[in-house]
Write a structure and sequence with these properties.
The protein is of the alpha+beta class and 314 residues long. The chain has one domain. 19% of the residues lie in helices and 28% in strands. The chain is built from six helices and 21 strands. Strands 1, 5, 6, 11, 12, 16, 17, 20 and 21 form a nine-stranded mixed beta sheet that branches. A four-stranded mixed beta sheet has the order 3-4-14-13, with no helix packed on it. It has a two-stranded antiparallel ribbon with strand order 2-15. Strand 3 and strand 4 form a beta hairpin. The protein starts with a strand and ends in an 8-residue tail after the last helix.
């Protein structure tokens, strides 16, 4: 039976800003959704995936799509995904799709021939590998209160700033002082090289540069708390578990309830970070979960649990 890895991550508290390079007039905006009846800020799974690939590039793994900080552009090693196997870690774990349009029309018949009743264009072709890594959107733990900061850019400070007149250029940005939570899933058996599951764990533990317009803001997306689950169960059952309790401390009452109800085996859980010091973290430890005060120690135990099943290739 396949083993599945699920994880629930909570970030530290910080000030997040625009993470997508978009604006409305002179206002840089946050992405927002309605969550439990209130407006919360959110960060896309694509941004999380981008940061994971950037982490692998820094660690000098072979990645197909590399980022050049000087040109601010991506460069591809194999843009058509033609190499045998999956030599690049990002292609194997994060998947890919290359869609090509048809080069000529279908059903091109001579004029004297009757046309088919149902015509159509020749189908293009797509080279696809489904992502083995799945991530949810990151959702703020606190509702967005509508905070906006106002700033000014000096004359000529940037190419887009006004070079005429005597006054600086005003601009503003939506910001959110909050934590974020997100979850992920991976079945290592589906990887062409199962050892790459360990590199994914390392990237998540050291995740950086996900939320925030980094010319002005730095937001730490490395986990402050983690819950890992290594299980035969197909369902994660631990997505979006975090709540803010007294004094802004993390709480995971739904995880505790599911363990007590028998829906989740506590022995499958590894808890790490600030959650370990909370009442819920201590309760999970009493119920049989492995609890560590540090995130990296929890990740190390997870990797030790993963290793026995990673020797064979998928």
């Amino acid at each position: 039976m396949s083993k599945h890895l699920f994880g629930a991550i909570a970030t530290p508290h910080g000030v997040a800003a625009n993470n997508r390079g978009e604006n409305e007039g002179n206002m840089t905006t946050l992405q927002k959704i309605l969550w439990n009846g209130e407006v919360h800020s959110t960060v896309s799974a694509e941004a999380i995936r981008w940061a994971i690939r950037a982490d692998w590039q820094r660690r000098e793994y072979k990645v197909n799509r590399t980022w050049d900080e000087k040109t601010r552009r991506h460069a591809w090693q194999d843009p058509d995904f033609l190499q045998e196997g999956v030599p690049y870690i990002d292609d194997d774990v994060l998947g890919y799709m290359s869609a090509q349009a048809a080069k000529e029309e279908a059903n091109e018949e001579p004029a004297e021939e009757p046309k088919p009743k149902r015509g159509g264009r020749q189908r293009g072709k797509a080279t696809v590998r489904r992502s083995r890594f799945e991530a949810t959107r990151a959702i703020s733990l606190a509702p967005w209160p509508g905070d906006v900061v106002f700033n000014v850019a000096g004359i000529g400070a940037t190419p887009s700033a006004s070079t005429k007149g005597d006054f600086p250029v005003p601009y503003s940005g939506e910001v959110h002082a909050t934590r974020y939570q997100y979850a992920f899933a991976l079945t290592p058996e589906y990887l062409l090289d199962r050892q790459r599951a360990l590199a994914l764990v390392d990237a998540i533990v050291d995740l950086a540069e996900v939320a925030g317009s980094h010319a002005r803001y730095l937001y730490d997306f490395a986990p402050d708390a983690v819950i890992f689950r290594w299980t035969d169960d197909f369902a994660p059952r631990i997505l979006y578990p975090y709540q803010l309790g007294e004094g802004g401390r993390l709480a995971v009452p739904e995880v505790v309830r599911r363990v007590q109800a028998g829906d989740v085996d506590a022995r499958e859980l590894i808890v790490g970070g600030s959650l370990a010091e909370t009442r819920d973290g201590q309760t999970l430890g009493e119920l049989g979960a492995s609890v560590h005060p540090g995130v990296k120690a929890a990740a190390q135990e997870l990797k030790e649990r993963l290793k026995p099943g990673l020797d064979a290739r998928g």
